[in-house]
Amino acid sequence: NIKYMRTLEGETKEYSLDSLPTEIIELIVQSTDDPEQLSRLRGVNKLWFALASNDELWKRFCLRRYKPCRVDLYGNWRSFYKHEIHGRSPNNRIIVHAMDGNYFLVDPEDTNNKIDVTTEASPEDVYCGQATWSPHGDYIAMAQYNAHHFKSEILLYNVKKKQIEMKFPATQHPFYFYWSPDSTRLSFLSNWPPHSIALHYIDIKEQRPSLHFIGTGRPFYYSWDPSGKPKLITHHAAKHLEILEAVSGVRRFVKHVDKLAAFSAPSWISPSELVYVTRYVVHQSKDLQRRWKIKLICAKIQTPLTKEQLATYSIAQLSLLLGPSVDIKEKDKNEIEDMVLKLSQDSTSVDESVLCDVEDDGVDLDFVCSPNGRYVAFSNGQLWLVDIRLHQTQDYKPVFLHGSVLAFFWSPNSRYLLYMVASIPGSNQSRWCIYDTVISESYEVATFIPSTEFRQHYLPFFCQYAQSLTFFSPDSRHFVYAHAPQRKCIYMWNAVRKCSE
Question: pLDDT exceeding 90 applies to what percent of the chain?
Answer without folding.
Answer: 24
